[in-house]
Amino acid sequence: MLRSVRRLGLQVLFLLGIYTFLRFMFLVYNWSSLQNFELEEIIHSLVMGLRFDTSSILMMNLPFFMYWVFPTQRKRNWSLRLFYFVNIIFIGINIADLELIRFNGRRLTPFYFLMSQDVSDQIGQLIIHFWYLTLSLIVLAALFVKYFPKPVRLKESTAISSIVTLYLVLLPIWLLGVRGGPQSSPVREANAYVFSSPKLGNLALNSSFTFIYGKKSSLSERYDFFDEKEMQVFKEQIAPRPSAMHGKLKGANVMVIILESFAIEYMGEVNNRPGYTPFLDSLAKRSLFFENAYTNGRRSIDAIPSVLAGVPALGKEAFLLSDPERTTLLGYPEVLKENGYSTHFYHAAKNGSMFFDEFSKRIGFEKYFGLNEYPRELRDQDYD
Questions:
Q1: Residues 6 or more apart from 68 whose CB is under 8 A from it?
Q2: Distance, CA of 105 to CA of 224 (rounded, Å)
């Protein structure tokens, strides 16, 4: 029995070693955004990560650990293969997040797999473009399978009372590990963000933990900074004034162009130098141009509610996937429709991608055109 328990301990330590290595990979890969923090904070973040590693490892592997110590003649090859498969998938998620976090600003959650259609269309390009991450996964998976301590089962002659005692001893230890310690409430993602920057919180976390415990966000918390009396004073003091363009564009077409991964420094006109956007620069010369430009969100799915309905990315998860998605919104299309416009939404991705087709209709667009409506004979030559 002691041999089997010792082997279980080695297996947990081996997995902790894998996750510690993944955290150091995260540190090195994203060193440019972490190098300015105090060494003490970085070390604290690395040590704190052991809580999240232990919790996620024990949560996902409990069935395997408990089964491997049960005395039976049945072979355990199938369970070992399933164990490898589950853990390599999560190792892959952590490796993919080395790059993903640069775009999302937080660890991966199940939300991204709701966009599996978009991911499947680009998976080949991603594997080739980030070949070094793909190679890292292959090497780490091979080492994991080769050197993981194989399970040792109890002997058939082991008394039932001993087996029950073993489970009764292991279960509280497992619960303590899953909870992340003896504190009153289980460890959660929010416990990682106790540092001077969220980036150190991301270093402390692992993507397996945020994926297992991730859930859709609920309605954002309401903040009241002024009482009704103060608000009334402000309303009386601040009267809306029409802009210099008011009335001059009556009857003109309205086009809102939303670009992916765009920043104002790419333009030439506003920066007084040659840019990468000659067409937009030509429009800026003949338009009402706003030089103060700010991002509407870190992800594509945040852009449409923000730009077309005035709903910024305030929650942890995308508005389109959270509870507020069921609320009533007033977007540009409804306002334009009241002034005699017909409204169309054009989207270069497949219909259903990031739920833009559904959301565009909900905020008043009369027609939606996605990749499904694009002429089939032109897709291959035009699709990028």
A1: 4, 8, 76, 79, 151, 152, 153
A2: 28
Token couple for 375? 């002429």
Three-class SS string for the chain? CHHHHHHHHHHHHHHHHHHHHHHHHHHHHCHHHHCCCCHHHHHHHHHHHHHHHHHHHHHHHHHHHHHHCCCCCCCCHHHHHHHHHHHHHHHHHHHHHHHHHHHHCCCCCHHHHHHHHHHHHHHHHHHHHCHHHHHHHHHHHHHHHHHCCCCCCCCCCCCHHHHHHHHHHHHHHHHHHHHCCCCCCCCCHHHHCCCCCHHHHHHHCCHHHHHHHCCCCCCCCCCCCCCHHHHHHHHHHCCCCCCCCCCCCCCCCCCCCCCCCCCHHHCCCCCCCCCCCHHHHHHHHCCCCCCCCCCCCCCHHHHHHHHHHCCCCCCCCCHHHCHHHHCCCCCHHHHHHHCCCCCEEECCCCCCHHHHHHHHHHCCCCEEECHHHCCHHHHHHHCC
Residue with tokens 């297992």: 212
CA angle 88, 94, 99 (to 5 degrees): 135
C-alpha dist (Å) from residue 287 to 129, 248, 249, 299:
38, 12, 11, 28
Distance of alpha carbon 204 from alpha carbon 42, whole angstroms: 9
Residue pLDDT, tens place only, 247-299: 777 788 888 888 888 888 899 888 888 899 999 899 888 877 888 877 777 77
Under 8 Å CB-to-CB from 11, ≥6 apart: which residues?
Answer: 65, 148, 149, 151
Residue range 341-353, pLDDT digits in tens: 999 999 988 887 8
The whole-model pTM stands at 0.64
